[in-house]
Amino acid sequence: MGQGHGWEGAVLKLLRAKDFVFTVTGSEDVTPHYRRLHLTDGGMLAVTGTHPTMWVRLWFDNAGKPHQRAYTLVAPDPAAGTFSLEFALHEGCASDWARAAKPGDTVEATVHGTGFTAPDPTPSHVLAIGDPASLPALNSLLAALPPVPATIWFETTEGTEGAERTEGAERTGGANGTEGLPLHVDPSRHDLRTVPRLDAGAHLVDRVKVDAPGLLEGTTDPYVWIACDTVTTRALTAYFRKELALPKQRVNALGYWRAT
Fold first, then answer.
1. Is the bond preceding residue 121 a cis peptide, omega within 30 degrees?
2. The whole model's pTM is what?
C-alpha cells in the first residue's frame, strides 16, 4: 500500500505514516444527503490509540488517479476494532464510493498528522465555531471536554458546490440548517447559534465578532475552537489572537475545506 497513492502517498510514507485497510460492516442514511458507514479498523486502533477529533485519510480512485480525503472517526471502539465515518453525498468519487459501499467492501487508509492537546487549564467557557464539514469533530470535542458552558456558532448551508475538503471530516452538505444532522449538544450548558452561510463565510465572521467580546468578559480561562472553511478559519483565528489578544494555546484552529 502507498505505492499506488501518487506523490501524496510517497510523501506520507517518508513521514512514517501508517497504512491500514478498513472493511465496511454496515451503513445508515442519517438524512437523504448524509450517510454513516460502520467499519472494522484493520488493526489500526490497537496501534494508534484514540483521541478526540481523530481523523484518517481515505484513498479513492478518481478516474485512475489516487484521491485522498480526510474523515473524523465517529464512536471509535479500540476493544472491538470498530468505528464509523460520516459522508456528505454530493458529486465526487468519495461520495460515490460511500453511496455504493456495502458490507465486505474495503478502503485503504493512512494515518498521519492527527492529534489533540487538551486545553490546560480547563476552560471556564468554550467558544466553538464550526459548520457541517467539522460536525463529527465538533461532536467529539464537546464529548471530550469537561462539562463546562459552551457557545457554539454553527454555520449552515444548503449544499456543497464549490467545496474541496482538506482535513478533518467530509463536508456534510445537503441539509438546510441543522435538521436531521447528528449535532450532539446539551441545552443545559450549550448555547447553539446557527448562522446561515452568506458572503462566502463573511456573515459568520461578523456574527462572531458581535457576540464574542461580551462572552469573553469575566471568562477567566476561555478556549476557542475553530473549524470552518480555510478563509473563514484564518479570519477568525486572527481576530481572536490579534484583536482580542487570546494566547495561542487557547485558540485551536484548522481549516476543514476550501472554496473553489
1. yes
2. 0.83
